[in-house]
């Protein structure tokens, strides 16, 4: 299923939830269907009502899967798809990193890898926009925004992309990044030296994970440099696409 939070264009401010399917949105309440809308009638919202924590894992060939390092990102910077974010200060550029993000459905502490997939409510795309000068590292205090895709894809819908389950569900999704509709990079989640289950387990060994927390692994394509006015899109088979626009500096 594709889980979605949304508002009707004719009734802004009223948050609704449901399922996106076949170009329509089916509103649900307590598991019961209460409305059907065409895609043009709704505005998707960030698909998680509240996230206290965003953890970013960027594994490489040297990453030890039992103790993978990660960064905490600022959950206050989370935005929905198709947002326009402020441009960076003069002298800085914007770099964008794409991730496969797992949103958690319940609290847990010190969960084992083989149990960690049971904590996943759904997967989405996460696009991290950071400002920096050439040679500076990507650091949380330089982040401009964290954009989360407009739907959560439940794990069962990715069964066709499941390669193995030795260390949790290992989905192999083809990915792409585009700037202003021009393809800039291709990739695959199959190159990541970590599964979401391993990342969730590792995070939970250090501190409890909570309902709504986001655990993301990437980058799923090469990092993309963008300029004010550019629209950057990342896409992955099974997860759809996510776009973010860099605002223009009119000074």
Tell me about this structure.
The chain is mainly beta and 251 residues long. It has two domains: 1-45, Roll (SH3 type barrels), CATH 2.30.30; 46-246, Alpha-Beta Complex (Fumarylacetoacetate hydrolase, domain 2). It is 6% helix and 47% strand. The chain has two helices and 21 strands. It has helices at 113-116, 196-206, and strands at residues 2-8, 11-21, 24-29, 32-38, 42-44, 54-57, 70-73, 78-79, 83-85, 93-104, 120-132, 143-148, 152-153, 162-164, 170-171, 174-179, 182-188, 214-217, 224-226, 231-236, 240-246. Strands 6, 7, 8, 10, 11, 12, 18 and 19 form an eight-stranded mixed sheet that branches. Strands 1, 2, 3, 4, 5 and 13 form a six-stranded antiparallel sheet that branches. It is globular and about 50 Å long. The termini are far apart. The mean pLDDT is 92.
Indicate the overall shape.
globular
How many beta-strand runs?
21
Could you say what the CATH topology of the largest domain is called?
Answer: Fumarylacetoacetate hydrolase, domain 2
Average pLDDT, to the nearest integer? Answer: 92
Helix content: under 10%
CATH architecture of the largest domain: Alpha-Beta Complex
Total domain modules: 2
* Helical stretch tally: 2
**Main pleated sheet:** 8 strands, mixed
Oligomeric composition of the shown chains? single chain
* Name of the level-1 CATH class of the largest domain: Alpha Beta
